[in-house]
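In the design runs reported in the main text, the only information available to the sequence generator was the tokenized backbone. The following block is the verbatim input for one such run; it is reproduced so that readers can re-run the procedure and compare outputs position by position.
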């Protein structure tokens, strides 16, 4: 019922999510990389969305739930969709571009949510701009974390596929968009 490839992909994603529970620099997290990786590797689109979301939810239950999570989860789901675009064309440059795109999308949506729900900023164009400007210093760690975890997940799994043929995706199982 459970194929080695699916189990390995899920284990990598849940392992990445578990690193959120370890001490780490602010915003240096595997969130975007997990979503991108799931979208790019699971043949079943439902698994591509559900497995990373379940891993996120479990880690969020430990870390804590907050009012901005809907924006995090919407951006997460959209990054999974970016991962769908990588199917069949997983090259270093396309993966890097998708990771940066996912980071920017996450930055835009989650900071919009913070501006919308937080009393810290006026509900105006100037308030929104101030919120985004204040978030810029955190974006560096977002990019670094997304880059690190994207390399770890995509690179680690590519090595595993070479070492263990049972993990390789069958050409017929490749889902096209």
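Verbatim output:
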């Amino acid at each position: 019922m459970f194929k080695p490839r699916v189990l390995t992909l899920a284990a990598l994603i849940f392992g990445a999510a578990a690193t959120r529970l370890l001490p780490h620099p602010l915003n240096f997290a595997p969130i975007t990389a997990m979503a991108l990786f799931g979208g790019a590797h699971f043949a079943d689109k439902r698994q591509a969305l559900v497995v990373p979301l379940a891993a996120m939810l479990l880690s969020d239950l430990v870390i804590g739930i907050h009012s901005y999570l809907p924006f995090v989860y919407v951006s997460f789901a959209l990054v999974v969709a970016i991962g769908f675009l990588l199917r069949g064309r997983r090259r270093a440059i396309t993966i890097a571009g998708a990771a940066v795109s996912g980071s920017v999308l996450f930055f835009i949506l989650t900071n919009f949510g913070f501006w919308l729900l937080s009393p810290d900023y006026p509900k105006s164009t100037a308030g929104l701009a101030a919120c985004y400007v204040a978030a810029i210093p955190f974006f560096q760690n977002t990019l670094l974390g997304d880059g690190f975890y994207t390399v770890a997940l995509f690179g680690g799994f590519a090595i595993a596929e070479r070492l263990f043929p049972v993990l390789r995706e069958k050409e017929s199982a490749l889902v096209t968009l």
